[in-house]
């Protein structure tokens, strides 16, 4: 029982670390000049037909 709980906890920590890494990369992007440039291009229609949910200001 304890071994299963330890494995489950270790798996959860691994998933958290992976998610946190993705979150930090996304946060860095949102705070970058690249994001502002991408948002401007998106607002001008340059990405029509391409899903750009990450550029949403409503998120």
Q: Can you describe what's shown?
A:
With 59 residues, this protein is mainly alpha-helical. Helix content is 68%, strand content 0%. The N and C termini lie far apart (41 Å). The model has no long low-confidence stretch (mean pLDDT 89).
Features:
59 residues, mainly alpha, 2 helices, elongated
Number of helices: 2
Kindly report the oligomeric state of this protein.
Answer: single chain
- Sketch the major β-sheet: none
Average residue pLDDT? 89
Q: Helical residue percent?
A: 55-70%
Per DSSP E runs of 2 or more residues, the count of β-strands stands at 0
Give the H and E element order. HH
User: Which blocks of ≥5 consecutive residues have pLDDT under 50?
Assistant: none
Strand % is under 5%
Structural class: mainly alpha
End-to-end Cα distance, whole Å, is 41 Å
Give the radius of gyration: 18 Å
Q: Give the overall silhouette.
A: elongated
Task: Please provide a brief summary of the model.
With 59 residues, the chain is an all-alpha fold. Helices cover 68% and strands 0% of the residues.
């Amino acid at each position: 029982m304890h071994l299963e709980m330890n494995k489950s906890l270790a798996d959860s920590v691994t998933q958290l670390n992976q998610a946190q890494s993705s979150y930090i990369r996304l946060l860095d992007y949102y705070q970058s000049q690249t994001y502002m440039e991408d948002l401007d291009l998106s607002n001008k229609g340059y990405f029509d037909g391409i899903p750009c949910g990450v550029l949403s200001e409503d998120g």
